[in-house]
Amino acid sequence: MSGETGHAGAPVDPRLLEILVCPVTKGPLRYDRARSELVSEKAGLAYPIRDGIPVMLPEEARKLD
User: What backbone torsions phi and psi does residue 59 show, to the nearest 5 degrees?
Assistant: First the structure.
């Protein structure tokens, strides 16, 4: 039961990260492993990753400071 998945659950498939873009800006996303989020600097949003699945809904995203 050990591993480095942290509080997020399953790790994200790296191939998935390569093809995902921000649904608002269609721009690139940065994977923040520590927070288990995909960050769109341009949109100022961070999309959560739950159980290894990115939740790409703007209403679920956290606004960046």
Answer: -70, -15
Taking the C-alpha atoms of residue 13 and residue 30, their distance in angstroms, rounded to an integer, is 14
Residues of the chain with pLDDT under 50: 1-8
- CATH number, domain of 16, equals 2.20.25.10
Measured CA distances, 18 to 1, 7, 14, 29, 45 (Å): 28, 23, 7, 9, 18
Specify the pLDDT at position 1.
40
Domain of residue 30: give its range. Answer: 8-63
User: How far from each other are the two terminal CA atoms of the chain, in whole angstroms?
Assistant: 35
Looking at the structure of the chain, the number of domains it has is 1
